[in-house]
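Sample entry was shown:

___
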Amino acid sequence: MPTAAFFDLDKTIIAKSSTLAFSKPFQAGGLISRRAVLRSAYAQFVYLVGGADHDQMEKMRQFMSQLCAGWDVATVREIVADTLHNIVDPLVYDEAVGLIEEHHLAGRDVVVVSASGAEVVEPIAEMLGADRVIATRMEIAEGRYTGGIEYYAYAEEKARAIEELAAELGYDLESCYGYSDSVTDVPMLEAVGHAHAVNPDKELRRIAAEKGWPVLVFTKPVALRSRVPLPPAKPTLAALAVGGMVAVGGVLWANARKRRLGA
């Protein structure tokens, strides 16, 4: 039976947040203000450290989800096409690229699974030579982003999407591999037979120890062009930061909802 290796994106393949990395190019392109850059950086900081209370998270969710509303898709694509390689290249973990190569050599598909938007995930996955992508999809109406989320690939939804893909393509999940840094991806890691915690947060490290999952430490960001030949930039390498920003907003919303429900 065919098998696959499923990789989270931020802090697993990419050495820092793809959301934060694209704030400045969007400011330079006139899509967001300097204040918005600072606020998105602050929101990302709180997301990474997990220290926001409910009110902070709700305010940031509203800000992040509204930030890209009304942005012209063609303008976003033009900015991203000009900046994709310069920004993403130095942020890729050498260890992750090596693992992807090993899985391909072993005959496994490589699937990038991320709560970031498809606008983020698809071009990076293409650069890495990944075979498939599971990612959040943003709403677009009349050539502009509405600020809404059509499909949210987060937490349990990642596991469900992996199981659906396995049913469609015939993957033997017990023989498949999974890699993530976040406790929110425990369902995704539990869906495969060979789970790995990569640069794990505190809770994932604890769970990995309980379950006997290997813990990997990735420390070497490299330029992707030094490891694999890159395809030429083209319009389909589109809208990187938009999906990432909405993904952060979605994470904040989901966490805030959990707090309201007492989860």
